Amino acid sequence: MEQHEATEGWRLCYATRRSRSSKEPPAGLLGEFLDLEAREDALSIRRGQPFLLGPGGVPDVDVLEFFRSRSFRVLAPDSQDSYALDLRLYLSFLSGQGLDWRSASESDLEDFEHWRRRDGRNPRRVTVSKFSRELAAIGKFYGWQQRRGAVSGSPVAMREREDAPGEITSTPKLRPKAVRSIRLKWLTPRAYRRWRDVGLAGYLADGTRDAKWRGRTDGRNLAMSETLWSSGLRLREGGTLLRGELPTFEAENRYARGRVGKAVAKGRGRDYWVHGRALKLIDNYVISERDAAVRRGRREGRYDAIADLKIVQKVDRSRRVHYLSREGERKVTPLDELTWKDRMTFFTKSDDGLDPWMVWLTDGGMPLPYRTWEKVFTDASDRCEALGVDIHCHPHMLRHSFALRMLMTLIYAHDRRMGITPEERREFRLVFGDPWVLVQTLLGHANLETTRQWYLEPVSGLQVELFLNDDGLEGSSVEDLMTRVAQASSKVIDAEEC
Questions:
Q1: Which domain holds residue 404?
Q2: Is residue 305 domain-shared with residue 399, that is, in the same domain?
């Protein structure tokens, strides 16, 4: 068992397996259960599965049953981790009030909501988006417990509304309104460069270098930022890239095509395109900062301590990874099935020693958990704020900004350069597709409405003629157009050049 984030309340743990290389039987109480792995298999307990233990490490059978239920297991691995963290926080809040989760009332949940979102005594209050996700986890937990008879009711009170004649929708009463739109922001290229240079590269607000800046991971952070900015990859997709997934850059092309596995891409493997500038930054990072981090990891014996280490032999044409286990067994697994946790256990081996297969590493040479990037971006935004640069950026904002920039390019710049008439343009779209559909493809969305409603909201209400028929915009660049959109929408952040 692997334990994380020990607190006075409930504890988040992950199921682990004893290394087969160990010749000694488990000591203590576990020594009586030599068939423990078989028992876990019979109970559908998987390696890496999250679960919760009550205060003092006491198990609650009903809670444990939820984590091995189909209702929980069908969630994506990333969602499982998120739900486990959300439930740990909620159950710990209740136990801190001397309450059992089985008897929690609607009023108790309201107290939790107040503490999470508005209580001045809580230094880590959350946004409406974050609380909405927590509420979804709590609702799923109680819904499952109610169906199996463990509780008679749920503290998650629901309200019904009629969206259309005969179509009734139920939503939690505590679910905040405008959950998603409140945090959606876009950056113009100019605003992005400003945030990047000050927050990640160690520049001051006036554009000069900060003599006090001592960033040891500048190369890594800049390479990752440019990768997300130029590709539109999700944080989990870009943050878990393997060296074998990086495309080869050809000088005659501006963009190179790569592929991300379905286990880290919301269940659908897909192609992605990344700018050559980002690939060059990655190359620079690999031969400098990353190489130094790997040598540090070898020197300090960090890789030798990884129990579930796997050594990559090759990736065949069917995208299957051939590897050696730590025990020397030859195994094969589909690349598309590797979760973000799996990816952290794969290494390559050369005459110099072991080398993590993941691109992004900690300063100590270990694979970097992708959620760490959220703190990197937060720290960069805090630095901007401290230096008087009013630009806040989180990783997903770069994905939204990529979508807006690509739409501008496809709708306006491309059409204008071709010099075609509105009639020819309509015919072109009938043959080759709508620019919105192309952006949908670049983002890997299954539903076009997701692209339209959430990612490109700043332009959805503007007249297409602004981009197609306004002769006053002749000769404008995509950056100029994004400035125009920023003037029309408070959600698009622009900045003055230094």
A1: 181-212+370-498
A2: no
Structure tokens at 296: 């540090």
Whether pTM exceeds 0.85: no
249 in the same domain as 148 = no
461 and 341 together in one domain: no
The answer on 324 and 454 residing in a single domain is: no
Q: Which neighbouring-strand residues pair with 171? A: 159
456 in the same domain as 325: no
12 and 123 together in one domain: yes
Closest CA to 242 of 261, 223, 255, 229: 261
pLDDT tens, 99-157?
999 999 999 999 999 999 888 888 888 877 788 889 999 999 999 999 999 999 999 98
Question: Exposed, middle or buried by CB within 10 Å (0-12, 13-18, 19+), for 393?
Answer: buried
Question: Which stretches of 316-433 are DSSP H helices?
Answer: 340-343, 372-386, 395-408, 414-418, 422-432
Residue type, 235: L
**Residue that wins the pLDDT comparison between 440 and 325:** 325
Same domain for 345 and 391, yes or no, is no
Q: Which of 468, 466, 471 is nearest to 485 (CA)?
A: 466
Q: Which two tokens stand for residue 305?
A: 């301590």
Tens-place pLDDT, residues 229-280: 999 898 999 999 999 999 987 776 788 989 999 888 876 778 888 999 999 9
